[in-house]
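Work Package 4 report. The design task specified in the project plan requires that, given a folded chain encoded as structure tokens, an amino acid be chosen for each position. We show below one input record used in the internal validation round.
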């Protein structure tokens, strides 16, 4: 099962606009992004959860990331 994706309606509009540009329209390497955007939970910007980072925003981490050994 894939993790859920939440995207703001304004970010979706920007991304879909980019994907329709001639330079990106027929790029197969972006099909995964297109599929993820299709299944995303789209919300209005004012309804975005506080823990979701949107485009053109800044985030700071207060904890150091831990390295995880997957071997």
């Amino acid at each position: 099962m894939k993790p859920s994706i939440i995207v703001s309606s304004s970010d979706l509009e920007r991304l879909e606009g980019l994907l329709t540009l001639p330079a990106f329209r027929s790029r197969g390497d972006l099909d995964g992004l297109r599929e993820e955007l299709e299944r995303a939970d789209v919300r209005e910007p004012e309804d975005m959860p506080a823990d979701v980072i949107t485009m053109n925003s800044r985030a700071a981490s207060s904890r150091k990331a831990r390295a995880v050994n997957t071997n």
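Helices lie at 9-19, 22-25, 31-39. Validation will be extended to a larger panel in the next phase.
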